[in-house]
Amino acid sequence: MQLIKSYLYILFIFLLSCKAFDKDEIIPSYIYIPKIDLEVSNDGTQGSNAHDIKDAWILVNGSLAGVFELPCKVPVLNKGETEIIIIAGIKVNGQSNNRKFYPFYDTCRKILNLKERQIDTINAKVKYKSTTKFVWKEDFEDLAVSLEKTGITRTIDTLNITSEPSEVFNYGKTGNKFSGKVDFRAKKGTFENSSISIFDFPRNTSEIYMEVNYKSDVPINFGLYPTSGSSIDVGIPVYMSYTTDEWKKAYIRLSPDVNSSSNAGKKFRIFINAVNAEDKNAVILLDNIKVLHF
User: In the chain, count of helices (H) and strands (E)?
Assistant: First the structure.
């Protein structure tokens, strides 16, 4: 009997504590972000609005609420007029475990009147920051190619321009009539081209990234050739893509290799290299190459 009384007493206290907790419970409001879009300038200086924004870094009244994979529905405990800042997040070098906010995209800022249980949808848009410098932009739309053959093991050096609708990135949309194409013609071989331009990047003061859209039957290696005077060092591979039958977007971070002590005082060319290891059909398609820093 005493045991039963003790059990009932504990149960009674538990129920009271639950009621007390319920009185103090904060009911959240919610924000829903289906995606983040990129807006670019109309004069073409920023290139395509193609992006692969994966995450939303969300600040509520200046405090980080968290990083959320898109699309996301996020509970917010604030009520009334609230500042929401959204920062676009990417996968650096295509790595799922290396996710950062992209330093060249500006933030999206909204003021919302939050209410309990209410869901506010934010159609977020970002732009490139005004301080972003586009030091290389290749979209093949001017029917010229700003790359040339390099590499001592190269057997294929031709990067053509294609206007075939099935091969062009986002064909039919404004500014999407041409893409770059490498065709191995069903033979083993090594392709390599590098930027004609030699870049003197800032050191330790800026992030440096390369953006590129690609679709390929073989892995593609993107990297840097350090140069000093007329000499060119051994290439530094930075990012190796997977094969893909769909167009993909890569954000390739160049700054760690540029800032390496072994490359002090050197300038750089950017190379694109790929190997077809079998006598099989293999095609590489490229578009919207950009190199950016502040």
Answer: 2, 22
* DSSP element (H, E) containing 211: strand 208-216
133-293: CATH topology: Jelly Rolls (2.60.120)
Q: How far apart are CA 128 and CA 43, in angstroms?
A: 14
User: What pLDDT does residue 277 have?
Assistant: 96
Residue 87 tokens, joined: 């920062």
Q: Judge contact between 287 and 139, C-beta under 8 A.
A: yes
Residue 36 backbone phi and psi in degrees, to 5:
-125, 125
Spatial distance between the Cα atoms of 247 and 22, rounded to a whole number of angstroms: 51
Side-chain-facing half-sphere of 49: CA atoms under 13 Å: 14
Just give the CATH number of 29-127.
2.60.40
Residues in the chain: 294
The structure tokens listed for 288 are 């919207």
The pLDDT tens digits for 260-290 are 999 999 999 999 999 999 999 999 999 999 9
- Given a cut of 50, is residue 232 above it in pLDDT? yes
Reported as a single tens digit per residue, the pLDDT across 181-203 is 999 999 999 999 999 999 999 99
φ, ψ (nearest 5 deg) of residue 131 = -90, 0
The residues that bridge with 239 in the sheet, in sequence order, are 222
* Contact predicate 132/294, CB 8 Å: yes
Residue with tokens 């001017």: 142
